[in-house]
Amino acid sequence: MGLRVLLADLDPQGNSTSWMGLTDVDLAETVYPVATEGAPLPTPRQAHGLSVIPAQVDLAQAEIGIASMPGAHLFLRQALQTVSDQYDVCLIDSPPSLGQLAILGALAADRLIVPVPTRQKGLDALPGLQRATALYRRLRPELTVALYVPTLYDARRTHDRTVLDELRAYLSPLSEPMPQREAVWLDSTMAGEPVGVYAPGSPVHEDIKRLTREVAQALGVVI
């Protein structure tokens, strides 16, 4: 699409890192030094046209370092500001939990994209999610949710359709749901390739392209 994109993986599980085919990641290549010491951003790796700051399991140790360092929650935002002229978009993949790394990512962002599974647990998580968002806004009043994204959707299940109706009633703006198509996701992860490389033109690839257009529109990015 011609955009200069930086992907910062803040999730110690490293799913985004794996999908980019990146392995043997040293802790110094992650956001760990940024988050715990206020160091500059590490040199990103290049993968599939993206600049990637990868993650690995030991990044979880940053949870303690961030909590014990005054002002650490702003370190990533400050580091990203120094390279903002080098990229058109910076994507921050935060952990699914509401821990210190998630706060670090939220306060570094200008807008939030929030996935919500079309499951009862997705509905049950909404109060906690809204409390967290309110906390982030107290610290960064200009922070907004650009898009909520229903995930794991199976239109054949009454449960999923009911939950989606509930999400549409309570959340805005809400994207079209992302269907549950686990096989291609799992296979592409094993291959270490994004879906667009592993299975171009597949239904999953079309889902991703559609969501990309929705996200770009919500962010005001021309693609």
Main traits of this protein?
223 residues; alpha/beta; Rossmann fold; 4-stranded mixed sheet; two-stranded parallel ribbon; 6 strands; globular; ParA family protein; DNA_Partitioning_ATPase; P-loop_NTPase; AAA_dom
Question: Briefly, what is this?
Answer:
The protein is built from ten helices and six strands.
CATH architecture of the domain at 1-109: 3-Layer(aba) Sandwich
Read across the widest sheet, the strand sequence of neighbours is 2-3-1-4
SS-based structural class?
alpha/beta
Report the span from N to C terminus. 6 Å
Enter the CATH topology name of the domain at 1-109.
Answer: Rossmann fold
* Main sheet specs: 4 strands, mixed
Q: According to CATH, what is the class of the domain at 1-109? A: Alpha Beta
Mean pLDDT, all residues: 94
Note the run of SSEs as H and E: EHHEEHHEHEHEHHHH
Which percent bin holds the helix content? 40-55%
Low-confidence spans: none
What's the arrangement of secondary structure elements?
Elements: E1 5-9, H1 15-19, H2 32-37, E2 45-47, E3 50-53, H3 62-68, H4 75-81, E4 89-93, H5 100-108, E5 111-117, H6 120-139, E6 144-151, H7 158-170, H8 182-191, H9 195-198, H10 203-219
Parallel strand pairs: 1-3, 1-4, 5-6
Antiparallel strand pairs: 2-3
Helix pairs in contact: 4-5
InterPro entries: AAA_dom, DNA_Partitioning_ATPase, P-loop_NTPase
Domain AAA: 2-132
Organism: Deinococcus marmoris
Structure description:
The mean pLDDT is 94. The chain contains 10 helices and 6 strands, in the order βααββααβαβαβαααα. A 4-stranded mixed β-sheet has the order 2-3-1-4. A two-stranded parallel sheet has the order 5-6. By secondary structure, the chain is α/β, with parallel strands linked by helices. Strand 5, helix 6 and strand 6 (144-151) form a beta-alpha-beta unit. The longest helix has 20 residues, at 120-139. 29% of the residues are buried. It has a domain at 1-109: P-loop containing nucleotide triphosphate hydrolases (Rossmann fold, 3-Layer(aba) Sandwich), CATH 3.40.50.300. Helices cover 44% and strands 14% of the residues. Residues 2-132 form the AAA domain. Pfam families: AAA_31. This is ParA family protein. It comes from Deinococcus marmoris.
